[in-house]
Design goal:
It is built from 24 helices and 27 strands. The chain has about 725 residues and is α+β, with helices and mostly antiparallel strands. It has 4 domains: about 25-165, GAF domain (Beta-Lactamase, 2-Layer Sandwich), CATH 3.30.450.40; about 190-290, PAS domain (Beta-Lactamase), CATH 3.30.450; about 320-480, Beta-Lactamase, CATH 3.30.450.40; about 490-710, PPM-type phosphatase domain (Phosphatase 2c, domain 1).
Length: about 725
């Protein structure tokens, strides 16, 4: 490793261009040594892309972190969290990783601890660092380790700030830091004698570097593996030895290096000989002992079959990590954002667009990274019969890769009429359930070669994106249906009588179908107006349908002139006659603004709040009857309440005040205090404030309906 001098004196231009790399390397190795970490990496932030890019790494093969070489700043992984939130992120082991960062745990399910910190000054974030320890590290980071990590990151941030002020460009070519080898036994034993000693051992010995390449193999190991030593040196055992070509064996090697724990496995050498492999890891590589296995019959029952198809580590890691990310997408726009944050960042794409199809035409579902959005939006509504790369990929189901603009324009001469400023493209058909659902276009700022393995990865990712997009489209369709049904069942507007102001809010539960059984209404009838609020059990289509029937019944009974207690009794019998197993709470009142009064009847509903003009708030503990739909003979007594000008009635459903862990009495006290304080605001503003400040409404385990009524002068 090249040392970096802090001494004065100008550096040649060529040296300044790459000066950042030794700075980062020295800082990373020094940090790892101070806290006795065994691997780590430094990421630099590319502000124009909001992407963190791994610049140097140490103590592990680069392939281990391949899915996270380039990550979006908003990605839910430790280095992104550390940079975005300017905090230390500590993950104390395998269980903590699975709980907090399941995407990483899926790809690297091994016992290790990790710390990530921002590299930042008070004015700017330059990137982030992570370091890892073996699984034997204590579950908590010590104060000393914490202080040393922060101090190292602060020193690095100051050096990067100085480089920026001096206009010294940072080299972004990724590099691996080679750890300094520890002193070997050759100093005392002699290399020739050491080789003789190892050659005489009855079992196989293999030395492997951090990348899994064989650096030494003794005669016994070569015999057991069935290959000459010369053909094994410099190769990966699972590549050069056909019967070790199984992902499980490569996984054991990864697990040994990351956990720094002794790891073993058995493998069948055809036709019937079982061998035992035991790996002893260190920070510079690992040593592997090979012996003939015992208890062959017992081992055979749990061993994998030889001859399994080969698997590339990077491909598996990328697909697993990005698949985990895409499972979190709910709606179509969630898919668009996740593809941009996770997929585009991982493959180095600078722009992305997802195209869908509807009615035989292309639809732009979402795009990111295009300097001129109109370039993309021109494709919206384009017939699928048009000859474009996007329509061809969608119609044929075959991906298309264009290394340069010349290649694209040669195959699609009309493409030059709509330049997008990019130089290479990948068109991935999105096929789900055997049918095309869209096309994902990845654009690159520079000409970009697409080798076979990268095309395979991108094609696989297209299938994952397609499945996520299909689920998202179904979710959005269900959401639109639910929203439309709910809007149809609730009043479009409120028409209060003279002397009354009214405002209402409805929020569906966040769990379920975005639809529920809460309802409110204002029913104009001569000579008085009625108001009603209620709550049918559940937040699903059944509850919503029943709510619509109850609301219609209340309107009908009010229109024919029934008194409040009669309306409640009639609605109760209606619900019982419908034969449903659901119950409903309800609060009904007849408003008489001319006399400044309201007559109320209650069926198991939360009590309303009344704010007087002087700001005092009272919970109206009204007499009432049971829930609707329980007892045919139930009686619902009425209560008369004074409603002087300036008074505000707050009618609500229990979703506003009830939630797990929240005491309803405390919730009512808090609601009353807020109403007393801000009750003079305009009614629409007051309704928004009451909903926003309710902890239960924020969690939304249940639907929330609020109806506010204010008495005012009839003039």
């Amino acid at each position: 490793m090249v040392a970096v001098s802090d001494g004065p004196g100008p550096a040649p231009a060529a040296d300044r261009a790459s000066a950042a790399l030794p700075v980062l390397s020295v800082a990373l190795v020094s940090m790892m040594q101070e806290v006795r970490a065994h691997s780590g990496a430094v990421y630099l932030l590319r502000p124009e892309e909001r992407v963190l890019e791994m610049t140097v790494h140490a103590g592990m093969p680069r392939a281990f972190a391949a899915p996270w070489e380039r990550v979006g700043l908003s990605a839910p992984i430790p280095v992104a969290d550390a940079a975005r939130e300017r905090r230390l992120v500590w993950v104390g082991g395998e269980e903590a990783m699975a709980r907090r960062y399941p995407r990483i745990a899926v790809v690297l399910p091994y016992p290790f601890a990790l710390a990530a910190l921002p590299v930042a000054t008070e004015r700017q974030v330059y990137g982030a660092v992570f370091v890892t320890w073996p699984g034997a590290h204590p579950p908590e980071l010590s104060d000393g380790e914490r202080d040393q990590l922060w101090a190292a990151c602060d020193r690095l941030a100051l050096r990067l700030e100085r480089a920026a002020q001096e206009d010294r460009p940072l080299a972004l070519d990724t590099a691996e830091v080679v750890a300094t080898p520890v002193a070997g036994v050759a100093d005392t034993l002699g290399s020739v004698e050491a080789a003789r000693m190892v050659s005489r051992l009855p079992y196989g010995l293999v030395s492997m570097d951090l990348h899994g390449r064989i650096a030494f193999v003794n005669a016994a190991a070569a015999e057991l593996l069935g290959r000459p030593a010369g053909e094994l040196l410099g190769t990966l055992p699972w590549v050069s030895v056909p019967w070790l070509n199984d992902p499980m064996y490569e996984d054991r090697y990864r697990g040994a290096l990351l956990s720094q724990q002794v790891t073993s496995f058995v493998a069948l050498r055809p036709p019937s000989e079982w061998l035992s492999f035991r790996m002893y890891p260190s920070t510079t590589g690992l040593s592997m002992r090979i012996t003939r296995a015992r208890a062959v019959a017992e081992i055979a029952r749990g061993a994998p079959q030889a001859g399994a198809s080969p698997s590339r580590l990077v491909t598996i890691s990328q697909v697993l990590g990005l698949a985990a990310a895409l499972t979190e997408a709910a709606g179509v726009q969630d898919v668009v954002q996740l593809v941009w944050d996770e997929v585009a960042a991982a493959v180095g794409s600078q722009a992305m667009v997802i195209l869908g199809t509807q009615g035989g035409r292309l639809h732009v579902l979402g795009h990111r990274g295009y300097p001129d959005p109109h370039t993309v939006e021109r494709f919206h509504g384009l017939p699928l019969s048009e000859r474009t790369p996007g329509t061809h990929a969608l119609n044929s189901g075959v991906p298309a890769f264009f290394d340069s603009q010349e290649e694209l324009e040669r195959l699609y001469p009309g493409r030059h009429a709509t330049p997008d400023g990019f130089a290479a493209w990948a068109y991935l058909p999105l096929i789900a359930s055997g049918r095309p659902v869209g096309t994902c276009v990845l654009a690159y700022a520079e000409p970009h070669m697409f080798p076979a393995d990268e095309r395979a990865v991108l094609t696989s990712l297209g299938g994952l994106i397609a499945q996520a997009l299909e689920r998202a489209q179904l979710y959005d369709a269900k959401h639109r249906l639910a929203h439309g049904l709910q809007q149809a069942l609730l009043p479009n507007s409120l028409a209060p009588p003279p002397g009354i102001e009214a405002a209402a809010r409805y929020l569906p539960a966040t769990h379920g179908m975005d639809i529920g059984g809460d309802f409110y209404d204002l029913v104009p009838s001569l000579p008085l107006t009625a108001a009603v609020i209620g709550d049918v059990q559940g937040h699903n289509v059944t509850a919503a349908g029943l709510m619509g029937q109850i609301r219609t019944g209340v309107r009908a009974y009010t229109t024919v002139g029934q008194a409040p207690h009669e309306v409640m009794s009639s609605t109760n019998r209606l619900l019982i006659d419908l034969g449903t197993e659901l119950f409903a709470s309800c609060l009904y009142l007849r408003l008489d603004p001319a006399r400044g009064q309201a007559v109320m009847a209650r069926a198991g509903h939360p009590p309303p709040l009344l704010r007087r003009p002087d700001g005092r708030v009272r919970v109206l503990d009204l007499a009432g009857g049971p829930l609707l739909g329980i007892d045919t003979a139930a009686v619902y007594p009425t209560t008369e309440v004074s409603l002087t000008p300036g008074s505000v009635l707050v009618l609500y459903t229990d979703g506003l005040v009830e939630a797990p862990g929240i005491d309803i009495e405390d919730s009512l006290v808090g609601l009353g205090g807020l109403l007393s304080e801000i009750g003079d605001q305009p009614l629409d503003q007051l309704a928004d404030e009451l909903v926003q400040h309710s902890a239960a409404a924020r969690d939304r385990m249940d639907d929330v309906a609020v109806l506010l009524l204010r008495a005012c002068d009839r003039t």
